[in-house]
Structures are given as C-alpha cells and as structure tokens.
C-alpha cells in the first residue's frame, strides 16, 4: 500500500492549493481507469438524407413509359411501402434517404407486372424495361397463360392472306415461320394489316395494340395455317387428345400401351393421314420410332422412367404434330429384406432400444443382394433414423421413422420397392448418488460444514452415476439442475456440485436441489438431494441488542413483515443502535470502530428509510470472526384507509345489502412509502379473504405511498358477512376499517352493520279469501272463480336463512295499481322476512261480463326486497261468477248394435239397449262442475261431448228422468226430461231400459243311449221367463218348431206375462212328418218381450229303432292252414251308418291256444247302407272267431263265426365264440346253434373257408345233428389265416332262416423290425438310416426319436439346454409302402450345428391281433464339437471392453456331446499381442453320467493386473476328433482393455501469452491415450462450450476451439478416456498429464482492457503517475516557498 503524507503549512491558502493539485491527480487517475471497455460497436449503414434513385422505364420498343396527372401507368414501392416518384426529363426520381442501404429494393409496378431494382452505390441510373403480353381480343384465338402466346388456326387459302382485326398491327422486327420443301420461309410479308404466307404451316409474329389508356401492349401469336385434312395422331388406331400416352412395362417386356401380361409386343402404332408423306422423330434414344410410326422402348435395366417427344412432320406441307410419351417400369414389393440380420416381421415394423445403437449401426440387406442394382435407401425422418448409401441405419434420436428401399434387378427394367417402420424406444434409467466415492441413500441429508465455504461458495464431493433398468452404468450422461432454492446458484460437473451465494441460505435448515440426468437413448431421470449447512449456532440476542432512539429513550427494534424471505425490522425514528452485551467476549471487527467501542449507531436519512441489510463483523475471544447482519429501516407513521367507491351495495337504515357480485374501492396510503399489503378480512374470525401484496400495489404506485385497491366481495347467497379492510405497512402496523364504517365514513367498531348477501327475489304467494257464504274454485290454468265478493291476499316471503326483507308489494287490478310499502303505506303488514297485503274485490267493479253482474279481475303482483331484488311479475285472473249453467234440448242416440228399439206404451217407454242422452250445456265462467241424470232412484254422471253433456243410460234403468246441473262455484239448475211423443197415450218422463232377453229352456225329458241315440219316442219341455232387473216389460210372443215345422205359436199383450211352459213329444207320427235321413230331430223355441228383446234356444235328439245286419265273413277258408298273415272281411248293413261310425261298432272275438280276446274295429263304408269291417291276424296258432255289430242306439245284430290256422315262424340260427371281423391270437373256438318253435322237420347247413397269403382253402365242417327245438355244435380253429364261416336252416312249412356269416383271423406270429444304416454309436457327419416293419396283419408302427442337446441362441444371446427333446418330426419321414404287410420309414439327421446331441431311437410295432415287438438304439451326433459360454462378469466386460481393473475371476463353460481329450486342452491369454506364459486357470469336469459332457474353465483375475489389450482363447479336441475354440464365434472373441493411466494433453498452441490483441483466438491441442479417448470437454469461464464424443482416432486426437474476447477468460479442458480415466487441467494432481499453457487470458482489441488486465503493468503505471505527479507538486511547492523567502 502507498501512503501519502501532506505537509501542513502555516498558510491555509497553500494547503488548499496542494489539495487542488491532488484532486487533479486523482481525477486524472480516475479518468484513466474509467475508460469504457465496450468492444464491438456496430452502426447500421444508413443512406444520407437526400439520397435519390433515378429510373428510366421504357417499353419493349424503347418508348419511355410516362405517368401523367390523369393516367398513372406506373406505381412504385420501397420494400413494402408505397413510394412517390417524380417524373421529369424522361426520368423517375425516388427519395431513399435515411434508409439502410443493405438490400434496399425498389419495385416498379404496372398492372400485375412487377420489376425490382436493388440499390447499389456504384450505379447512378437504372434502366428498366417493362412489357406485358396483355391478351388482345382476337376472334377464334386461344390464349395460353403460361407462354403468354396466342394460337390462331386458319384454313389454308390459295391467295395466302390473313387479315388482322381492326386496331391490331404486326411488329415486323421479330418473325418466325416454317420452311417449305424448297427451303423458302413460309412467311411472305406484311402490308396494310394483312399477313401473307405461302403454304400450310405456321407463322409466328408479334402483334401490337393500343389500350384505352394509350399504353401499347404486345402479344406473340402463332398463326397456324391448316389444310382441310388436319394431321392427327392415332395410337393403336385410337385417337389421343391429351397429347400424353403413359406406358407401363411388365417384367422384361418391351413397353407399350397394350403391354399388360403379354409375352411379346411389336411396338406402338402411330398413324397420321397421308402416312406416305410423314417423317417420324423421337427426342430420346431410349424411345425409338421407325418410318412406319412404330414406337419401341429401348430400356434394359434400372427403374428410372423414360420420356420422349414423338414428332410427326408432313414432308410436303411442313405440318407437325407432337406427342409426349412417358414410360414407367412396373412397380413391385416382391423384395425380401432383413434388418439387423433378421427377416422383416410380417407387420413391417422393427422395434429397438435406442441406447443399444448409440455407436452401432443397424444393417439393412436385400436377400440375394448381388442380383440387384440401383439400390437406394431413404428415411422420411433423418432426425430419428438416418440411413447410409450402404444400408446402415444410424439411430439419432428416440422416435419413429419409415425406411424405404428401392432397387432394380440386373438386366431387368422393373422397380422393386419396400418400406418398413423402425421404432427406437427410450430405456428406463435411474440415478445413483455418491459422496466421497461412497454410494449415498438419496433420502439422507448431505451435510456441509461452514468451514468449507469460501467466498460464499462451496464445492461438494458429490458425484452421480446414471444406470439403465438392468443396472448397467451409462457412459454418456449430461446433468442439469432443474430446481434449487431462490437466491443461490448450483452447478454440477464431473468433479462435484458447486453451490454459490451460500449466504442467502439459512443455516441448520435443510434445503433441496433437484438434478435431472439425460443419457442418449434413455428416458430422463431425476433425483432430489437434500443439503444442510451446519453453521455455527449463536444466539445473537445474547451477544448484542438492537434498539432505536425515541426522545432519548432506547426502545427495542421489533420484527415487521416478511419481505423476500427476510423478516424486516423497523425503527420509529431515524437512529438505530447496536450494543454489545458482553464486551469482554466479543468485539466489533471493523478497523473503523475503536477497539473499546461497545456499540454502533446507524443514523438513517429519509432516503435510507427502506429496509436494508446492515452488516458488521464480530470477533470472539478466540479470534474467531463472526459475520452477522441485521435488516432494519425507518417507519414514522401508520398507514391509512379511505373510501373511494362501491358497486352493487345498498345502504339502508336497516343495514347493507347486495343482490349479487359487489365490490369496493379504497385508497391505501402510507407516508413513508412502506405499504405492505391491503386485505379484505372477515371481521369476526379475522380470516383473510383476499390480500393484495406489495408487488401488486407497486403496479399502481411504485413508491408504495398511495394506491387504489379494489376488492371484489365474494357473493354467497343468503349469508350475513362481517367484512373489514386492513392495510399493513412493512413495519407490521395496521389500520382496520369495517365495511360499514368505510361506507358511512365511520371509524372501525363504531358501525357494526353487516353486509347481507341476497340475490334471491321474494317468493310471492297469491290467494283469494272467500267469505262463509261464498264459494271458490281454482281452475287448472290458475284462474280463480268465486261466487261472491272476496279478499285478495298477497304474502311475500324473502327466502333463506339470511334475508334482506320485503320493502314493497305492488298489485295491478284491471290496470289500476295499488302499492303497499314497508313504511306503512297501504294494508301492509311485515314480520321478519314476510310481508302481507290485502285487497277487497268489491273495490273494483270493472270487468262485468254477463246479465248477473259477474266480473273478471286481471291482477298482476310483484314485490321488491331491501337488497333490490324484484320478483318476477305474476298475473292472476279472478272471476266473480253469479250465473248458473243452462241446458238446451235433449236428444237420444242409440249405439250401433243394430238391435236397439224404442217402444212407447201407455204404461211407459221401453228401450231394449243402452242409449246416450245428450243436452247442450252453457256456463261461460267457472265452468260446469257436475251434470247428473236422475232416473228413478238411479243417478247417472254426465261427460262432456263437444258443446254438450252426454249421459250413458245403461241396462235395467227405470223411472222418471230429470237433469241436475251445478257449476264450479255452486250455482245450480234442474231441468225435467219430456219424452218425445208425450200426449199420444204415452206416459211422460217415465223410461225403462230392458236389455235382458226372455230366458228360454229347451230340454229332452229322458237321457239317450251310450252314444247319444234314442231307440224310441222323445218328449221335450220348453220354458219362457222374463227376468228383467227393473220392472219387466213382459213376454209378447213364443214360437216352437220341430225340424223347421211349426209346432206351436202363442202371443200376449200385457206386461204381466212373465212365465210360460210347453211340452213337445217326438213320436212315430211326428217322426214321419219331420223325417231326417240322419236320424236327428231339432226342437227350436223363440220368445220376444215388449222391449223388443229376442231370444232363441233349441235342442236335438238322434232316434234309430232298426238293428244292423252282418253278412258272410270272407278273406280265409274256414278250417284252413295259412302261412303268413290272415285278414277277414265282415260286411254290415246299417241305416244310419256314417264314416265316423256314429257309435256303431263291430266286436271281434278270437280264441287262440285256449285264450279268448275281444277287439272293437271300425268299418269302411261302401255305400249309404253297407259297410265292411276288416281285421288282420298275425300270430301263429289255431283261431275261432265270432263277430257282432252294435249301432249307436244300442240295437245289436246276430252273431257270425269262422275258424282257421296260422303257421308263420322261421327257424333261427346263430354263431358265437368270436366277434365278426376280429383278430384272434393263436386259436379260435366257435359255437353253432339252430332253433325252430313249431318243429316239424329241420335241415341245418354249415360251410367255411381259410385264406393265407392269397391261397384259399375250403374247410370240412362235418355234419350237424338236430332233434329238438334247439340244437348246438362246437368247433376249434388253430391254423393261421383269415376265416369265413356260414350257417342256415329251413323247416317243413318252407320257412327259411337267415344265413349267418362270420369273418375272423387267427394270428400266430409277432411283427418283425429291421434297422439299416444305424449300427454305429457315434456320428460326425450326416446320419442316414432306414426302419422296416413286417407282419402279415400289420396294424401300426411307432417311431420316437429323442435328443439331449446344448445349443447357443445368438438372437437371445443365451445357452439352450434341452433334455430328451422329441425330434421325431424333424428327422423321421415315412417311406414308400411296399405292401399292406410292410412299412418303411427313413431317418436322416443333416450335419448342422444345432443337430449335435445324444439320440435315442425307439421303434415299436403291433399287429391286428395285438401281438407286439420293440427295438431301441442309442447313438451320438457330434459334428461340430463344443459349445462355449461366458459368465456374466466376462460378458459385461466384453460389452463394455474398457476397464480400469478386473474385479473378479472369469468362468468359461464348455458343452460337448462327447468327452474332451484333457491332454489337448489349451487356454491362451495374450497381452498386447504377446502370449502370456503360464496363465493362472483351473478346469473342472462337471459331466453327468449318460448325458452331455460339461467342463468349466476358471481364469484368475490376477492375469490382468497390468495395463494392456487382452485376448482369451480356449481350444479343445473331443473324442470324435472335433477341434473347438472360443475364437470361432465372434461373440466369444474375448478381447478387452485394461487401462489405469489417465489421458495426456500433449500440446496446446494459441495460449502461450496472457494478453491478445484480437477479437477472437483459435486454440489447437493434441491428445493421446494408449487405449482410446472417449470424450473431450472445453470449458470457458466455467461454461462448457464444446463437447467432442465422436473421436475418430481413438488413441490420438487433434482438436481446436475458439475463445472470444473478454478479460481474464479461464480456459479448462477435461479429457476422458475409454476406461473412464479423467484428466482435468484445473486439478493439480493431473498436472503431469497436462502440457503447459496459460489458463487465464485476456483477449481484446481495446488497449486499455489489455493494460488493465496486466496487473503488474497496471499497478506500476499508476505508481509511476502518482510519483511523477507528487514530484511535480513537491518541486512546485519548494519553488514557491523559495520564492516567498526571497521576497521576504
């Protein structure tokens, strides 16, 4: 430190001069050190004001295009803005000043044509040519928008002239035409609007015309001169009009229009008229056309389309026609792809884990790929999966992409294409946490010591590892901090976690930091870590006190509100004092404070009244420093609240009311600007409903002195709320005002009215109170009817537990309004939440509607409560009804039964059915309440029909009738009914409805026979009775008939005749008079009463007095013997016989073997009188038969008899002992039997044959002796062969038995099994053998081949061990069937790696008789030797072959179908290519008896203790001579790398100096690692600016990076090798691996920054300036002093 001492002079003025000089020096130094260090100042290149662009715009003919006042042809724009152009001297001038020159564009617009000129400083004038091909209206011309060209077809004329339309002229400067055959141009000149031509062809000219606005326009025109026979194309005799023929090619055929599925094609036929004069040409050699117009495709390979234009030209006229041909190859998806070595799945979708292919690629191959050419691979999403030209897929991100493969076969023009989907999925992951290299439970809190914190920053030895779901650690992971406490910063790197700004963290209180990890191809994973800083816990209150001074008195400083996480403290004056309580133990640490000072005073000006951090240091007696701070400020006055405005709040004498959403605006003020919050609270509970904090308050007033606050008061219907508004300042002081106090400008607590929230209008109930003599009726539509004057009563109820109450009720009656108020106006009574208003109808005499002074009152009701809610107006209609209902006319209507009658007599009017009586009723007001018809003692209710009332008069009603009417309010009227026709001897008003007919009974006095027939006379009784439920009308007449012939008729003329009885006898006389051929006689009685009701009853009887007669029985000779069934015919003669029998039956009695049975049979009718009964006998025996016939009336015939014999039984034969068709072992015993029930004579015949190997032998069966009804014989068969035996019998009556036949086979030999070609126990090549089974009666043969094997599944990367696997279907095939007695099968096991194993072949055979044979053979197939597997630790190492050290021994397992020659086992380990001598390993034989052989090689980890590249190879030889080694399989090429050496930073160039005069420097570096470099990270000022992971040369890498300008830029490199060794240029221990370079450099083009950054130079410069200045000052001072002395 440089100290200055100023000499004190006696003269004060000189002292001031010295101070002045020092001020100059200090100011100069400050100016030097405060030069701004801004780097790159970029100022836009803006054109000076007044800069202009000059443009000359000409037409295509060179004429300048001019704008005029009345015709603005051109418009101009600068960029997108309209611009003004001044025209003068053929130039347009545009002002472009004050605009950026970069890419400044000016647009010239004429109609829809735009030309653009770009500003250039090198140009002074811009020439623009504007032309437009505006269509000209030319008749029969076709305009082409794309070419802006007309085409006009005209017929060829001999004079060769074409006249242009008026106003159109030809430009003679640009002419084109075809040539004639003589080589002369077809165009022959232009004159006076006429174009001359020579021959058919074309002439291209440019026509001009002048628009209406005077602007000349140009249009190119093709004048096509056609002859009559216009040239046209025909393709295969079909004319094409679209000038485009698409040709597809199939396979290797030549392409053509008609190509599909044809084997050959001769070309495409093109034809034109006058073909002999046509010349054909093709624009492409791949499509050729010959002189006849035949087109062919000359394309032999690939799949690109071919195109050509075929032109036909008339050699004489020059006429041309052209067609465009495009030929496409056939497209096929018949291409087989494999992805990653596997066939494409059926759904063309491949799913992989993205993480597995971070560095590896996925190959895509075509089956037989050498047969294809032009192979193109593409991806529709290269951000997910990119594919190289060789078919290697690079997985770049998680997601889905579609890969397309397109190819062509060699020597084939055809496109093969296939697309599949590849989906890369993210793998689950998780994060492990390590502290000091030891895994940490993330639920534990990581402790931080206060002593480890430096400059508010601490670096923690916390590292993270990210693992996939299988537990494998991920290599390429990035971590970011996603969540941390506010106020701190946290950074994570490979070396740990750094936390900065730790002073803002509260000590001894845990806090959390969340870190998210991302590994390529893996799902994001995050972990939340808990930290705590263990600070020194001291009780500040025991060390010092904080107070403020008020009127000389110390008052403790109390806590205020929390702001930004800090509890503020406020003094009520401007002076705060901090006093030590123990001056011996603690002292203030600042040099500014004297050591004996025991307090500090903070005096704050008004500008310092805001709460701020006042920090100071303390030292304890142990010289430990304590940094502490206190937050405090000044606050001199409490805040205030005033009312501003309100919305939707009613203030009444009763209280405050709101009917919906309400709000209040208040003004909060604090003189000190310490407003903290304004709150709306519940004044009863103190709960805060809404709070407006400092941030929101500051939006209205940043000074926090005065701000308007609006509170939306929450609305909850039917509630009473106590609201208050509170304003807080930051000192914790508050001011409270109640809502009512604010609205009434009263202090808090002085007005306790609450705010009633009520948005529910009152419920108005309306009623009419009728007096005791007045009736009331309320209709369904709500109308009210009363029979006299009444009171109208309205009750309004303000619903809910909390309500505002009713303030007003309003009624409007026939337009006259009546109001009732809560202040007592009108008949208004109120109680709590209800109010009542009463009005008399007599007060309103308007609305009279009839002659009885009935009135209509229309009443409307509404109410309003104190909250301002108005109820919905409701209308009510009241009618004062004084008039009774009226009836006019009464009519009777019968139903449509067709039997209704009206009979008028002197003793009444009678009706024989229900009828309806209807009367027209009128009642204009309350309506008819009831209408009843009274008839005698019966009352009938009416119902409405149209404008009247109807009554249904039912059965059995009688008496005088009257109609009684009553309306809804009780007005009544009674009307008497008068019968129509009264006065003509008819009784008036009396009616009788008699609907019940006369009861009639007709019945025979005696019962008929069994079947309902009588065999004599029959008497019937007829009774008639009138049984009406009312006064009966009486019988008028009764009529009786027999079979339609009148028997009796009686008539009566009074109503007293009610009961009559009659007898009717059907005797011989009556039978003869009413004879019925069927024998049926019917008695019918009909009765009619005086009401016209008619009833009929009848009864019938069947009468027969003649017995049936049986004739002679036929069908069999009496006493005869019969073979077969016997049917007899029984003729019967019966007068009344019918097909149904009518009860007539034939009884047949038969006697058989002493037993008699009786059967009833039916008979077939041959005519009216004759019938025949038939009966069939089937049982054998002697019969005696009798027949009797009985008719339905019980008349019996005489008996008829007949006798005969039936013999119908065949003999029965049987064979037993074996089953038909069966096969019997060794021998068979048969039993023969014959049975004849009626034995007379028995002849039994037995025969048989035996067949063996095609030779048939007839057997001698011997004789069969039979003498009884059942005879038996046995016989044994022992010779092998197929037998057929028969037996039959015949009796004396000619009845023959069925022939019984049986087939069976006797088998005495077992099946024979032969194995060929399977005589060895071990095979090293393909196994081929034959199995043969023979037997005369072969049934089935079973072959089973099982294998025990060990194979390796490359897809799943696992060993498959199977035991006794059934492989019969794989290797055993059915051979040729030589005969039914012999079967051949073939066994063939090809030499394939998966076929090695232990085999057991078992063959069983069984013949039809169940005789069996079996053969079992065992052998070994060992064509490939051993299968090797590695244990998990070695496999994991091979998957990630770079390690720092080997942790455990390796185990290699070997499996072989045979045994291993132990003398030929070799275990070789190489390190860096050199063979290791005597490696440590052991071999264990784990083989099982009769199973595969297994050997285990344990290789010690001690073999790999040194750095190097290791390779393990195990080779063995088995008992079959197979040599096996692990190196044969790529997956088991055990190569890995052990590396404990960190990578080296060999060279750094570009950082040799500490200061650089540049805006940016390039740095190059060289890295080396013997095993390989995995990652390089470059950090500049702690920020990673570059990360390289795709290091091409794994052992040596040359890299570079750039450093932009800045002061003291810190450079850091972190290098990681493949094994995870890290070299960090910021880690001192890594210095031996790091080349020298400057880690901190300053890069700037500003000399002052470089000077300032060079601290030594900067300090020396300042010291020199100060010393020089001081010397000058001293010298000047001395000179002045000397001069003063001399003057004295």
In a nutshell, what does this entry contain?
The chain has 1688 residues and is mainly β.
Write a structural description.
- The longest helix has 33 residues.
- The chain is extended.
- Strand 4 and strand 5 form a beta hairpin.
- Helix 1 packs antiparallel against helix 9.
- The strands form 31 sheets. Strands 19, 21, 24, 25, 28, 30, 33 and 34 form an eight-stranded mixed beta sheet that branches. Strands 76, 77, 79, 80, 83, 84 and 85 form a seven-stranded mixed beta sheet that branches. Strands 66-67-74-73-69-70 form a six-stranded mixed beta sheet, with no helix packed on it.
- It is mainly β and 1688 residues long.
- The protein starts with 11 loop residues before the first helix and ends with a helix.
- The chain is built from nine helices and 138 strands.
Key features of this structure:
single chain; mainly beta; disordered N terminus; 138 strands; 1688 residues
Topology (SSEs and partners):
Blueprint: H1 12-33, E1 52-58, E2 75-78, E3 81-83, E4 86-88, E5 91-95, E6 105-110, E7 113-118, E8 126-129, E9 141-144, E10 149-155, E11 161-163, E12 169-177, E13 187-191, E14 194-197, E15 201-210, E16 216-226, E17 234-235, E18 238-239, E19 244-249, E20 268-271, E21 278-282, E22 287-289, E23 294-297, E24 306-314, E25 320-332, E26 337-339, E27 342-343, E28 349-353, E29 362-366, E30 372-379, E31 385-387, E32 392-395, E33 399-409, E34 414-425, E35 429-435, E36 438-440, E37 445-449, E38 457-460, E39 462-468, E40 477-483, E41 489-493, E42 496-500, E43 511-519, E44 525-534, H2 540-543, E45 544-550, E46 553-556, E47 559-563, E48 566-571, E49 575-580, E50 586-588, E51 599-603, E52 612-620, E53 625-634, E54 640-647, E55 650-651, E56 656-658, E57 662-669, E58 675-682, E59 688-692, H3 694-700, E60 706-713, E61 719-721, E62 723-729, E63 734-738, H4 739-744, E64 755-757, E65 763-770, E66 776-778, E67 784-786, E68 790-797, E69 806-813, E70 816-821, E71 828-831, E72 834-840, E73 855-865, E74 874-880, E75 886-894, E76 902-905, ...
Parallel strand pairs: 1-8, 10-16, 19-25, 25-34, 28-34, 37-44, 48-53, 56-64, 67-74, 77-85, 87-93, 95-102, 104-110, 112-119, 121-129, 131-138
Antiparallel strand pairs: 1-5, 2-3, 2-6, 4-5, 6-7, 9-10, 11-14, 12-15, 13-14, 15-16, 17-18, 17-20, 20-23, 21-24, 22-23, 24-25, 26-27, 26-29, 29-32, 30-33, 31-32, 33-34, 35-36, 35-39, 38-42, 40-43, 41-42, 43-44, 45-46, 45-49, 47-48, 49-51, 50-52, 52-53, 54-57, 55-56, 57-60, 58-59, 58-62, 61-64, ...
Helix pairs in contact: 1-9
